[in-house]
Design a protein that fits this description.
Number of strands of chain A: 26
Oligomer: homodimer
Distance between the termini of chain A: 69 Å
Largest sheet of chain A: 6 strands, mixed
Strand order of the largest sheet of chain A: 3-2-1-7-19-18
Helix content of chain A: 10-25%
CATH topology of the largest domain in chain A: FAD/NAD(P)-binding domain
Largest interface: A-B, 76 and 75 residues
Amino acid sequence: MVERVVVVGADAAGMSAAHQALRVARAHGRVLEVVVVERYTHTSYSACGIPYWMAGDVDSADRLVARTADQHRALGVDLRLLTSAVALELDARTVTVQGPGGGTEQLGFDQLVLATGARPRTPAWALAGDGGWVPGVRAVKTLDDGAAWVAAVTGRSAPGGRRPERAVVVGGGYIGIETAEAFVRRGLETTLVTRREVMSTLDPDMGARVRQGMTAGGVRVVCSEEVDGLDLRRDGTVAAVRSAGDAFPADVVALGLGVEPATGLAAGAGLPLGAFGGLLPDDRQRVADGVWAAGDCCESVERLQGLRVYVPLGTHANKQGRVAGENLAGGEARFGGVLGTAVTQFVAGGVHLEVGRTGPTTEQATAGGGEVVALVTESTTASGYMPQAAPIAVKVLARPDGRLVGVQIVGGPGSAKRIDTAAAAMWFHAGVADLAGMDLSYAPPFSPVWDPVQIACRRLADRLADRPG
Amino acid sequence: MVERVVVVGADAAGMSAAHQALRVARAHGRVLEVVVVERYTHTSYSACGIPYWMAGDVDSADRLVARTADQHRALGVDLRLLTSAVALELDARTVTVQGPGGGTEQLGFDQLVLATGARPRTPAWALAGDGGWVPGVRAVKTLDDGAAWVAAVTGRSAPGGRRPERAVVVGGGYIGIETAEAFVRRGLETTLVTRREVMSTLDPDMGARVRQGMTAGGVRVVCSEEVDGLDLRRDGTVAAVRSAGDAFPADVVALGLGVEPATGLAAGAGLPLGAFGGLLPDDRQRVADGVWAAGDCCESVERLQGLRVYVPLGTHANKQGRVAGENLAGGEARFGGVLGTAVTQFVAGGVHLEVGRTGPTTEQATAGGGEVVALVTESTTASGYMPQAAPIAVKVLARPDGRLVGVQIVGGPGSAKRIDTAAAAMWFHAGVADLAGMDLSYAPPFSPVWDPVQIACRRLADRLADRPG
């Protein structure tokens, strides 16, 4: 009998699982039936690309779709769009799905993959009486969001084609920064309001560098303000964003408040959830007998300390999906954990600022009582005498014994991707002296003779050895 | 009594040793007298920057000097310029030096650092009867070479200020490519002649990609030709470069044939040399009792297989110098070996091509009989839908058990520095599956969701597991 695999969710995690399962089964001479149900109409799309679609770098939603439904089907996946999984019975091995016509069906499964993703955190003030968005307010998460934003910033969705003039971004994380960039590039007067410093995934001193860059690029950045409501116009559209003490006039308001795991289906079936509300797979991505989970609906394990964390990124979704697919098909794969590596940029208003980070912040790394020593090094992205040399600041965090805890980078063109060097070293539990000694590349257009990441590690190693630099 | 350290050579290795020795001694409460003798007038200069000085990116030799003589002296180094070390007596613990006035002096030492560097490989045909360069012909190594080249390409050194029209570069390595770039950017009709494929530090298929890029950028690239002589004009200046079957007209000829260790002083003192003619320090950079060596005069140990190699690069010179300085001052440091990580670029004639490489080539890795499996992946430097996405080809070499042997990258802007990710992983003896699983950064302007280096490793891991991609 052919074994049936049901995958819930057709984005990165789900489709990676589906294809890897088929691939591994084929290699083992096994036949799997793989059914994927997807609530929306699109598959495998790049949510991260939406700000660039808004900015005009990308000309249509189609370009953000890595693989279309037809391409998935051609590879052997039974893909059912506009189909929601509404109930899960683990004992009966069935998932109840509701198709586009509204009728429900019970799908039996031998193995199940939960790849239900995440939903944007949405404060009550952003929603109208009917449960939909207040007109002019929206998250930046789905392709529908993207389409609405493109229509808004180009004036296509406003009466008379009037383009909005003032934008407020609520939230200072990746999506907040990238959306602010898009608004500035579209010529909007842009304010970003955030509860703490910009980029709370950086230490505050490094976040301040990002804020300064964004300010120089034309964004009004307001920190330490909690948005608690909106002022509306008579027609119900947004007029301003309100915090305790201020009001920020806005024709449009983008929400970049992060996401939370979409785990209703799993919770309804009694699967345990963690402190962040996510599923808790083991390193084979297994959550129960014959049940696997991957992507933004899962918490992950932080590689160096083994703590549970919630890092909803496409990189992990793809890898976890592959691991789940491999294992359910009889292979043996393990997810190696997350460091929290991420990059972003703000390129607008004559500013080109790149950000990279990996590992916990100082606050996170000391929360459990551990000690952290840290140092910021200022250097250049290329040899100082080259015209392309731009400033780069590298902050290195280490334990007193020299073990690397994290690295944070803020700088000009060519800065961000250097974080991968640190991440690769940290993957193998490197110390600052290890990184300082590594054979990294050098040529004048690319780096000083010691790469900035290496300079920072060398200086911290010297300091730990009690040697003045 | 104050211990005296004599350092021979005031470039990267020698000055790193001198300063680290002072720093470590100070931390230990010891006092050292550090004397550095240098044959020429300049210290700590960037030879790698000379092609960019030639191209016009850098406006003077001063900019290529990382630290001036005065700066070194202010840090406590007794620096003696225009002073050659002409003899070394290990038993007597003396080095005989000849100063600017021509007189000699015997300097006693307690510890000695040999940092005598390398000299450009110079075929007999490049030299005139008086032992100097044939006019129009020159290497690209010293600041004097740089000054001569800048004068030549700007026409300042020719009668009537006539600028040369046709340039030939002999040699297809880093200096050859970068010098060809400088000539094209200066408007010269440029031919590059090389014995093998361009970039013999890459596998030939990857070297061919570099050649194609250079050709598209306006360089006539002639491979598999050995230059064996020159045609001269009546005034003795170069008219053409000759190989067995061809002649390549040239007003100027740049030599990029690599360098060889300058070890006359050490050999005269009976210190052993290796197969490449270099000194053979241990991993503390010690070559004899109280005698240390660092930089281009040394062979190095390849980290993964432990073979002796000769990789004369500033990155290693700096690190080895530091290690020597640390150890001679009573510290304890070890040089971790080399992988052979290097980057370069060819940016001219509308082409922007970047190259990165680490580890042995297939030819080198199989020379001892070992087996290598390899795979080339073509991807993009950013998400495919982004305007900045450029092609990138990544070749991964591994042993049949998956251990990484080397990585080679040829691609557009943003390609080269990705080699550091591979180098960092290889530093810790990673396998292709390790690298495929690592937490590397992603955002649309910087990378596809799987970094190209990671895609290549993942595919090779799949192939080794006998799974179609």
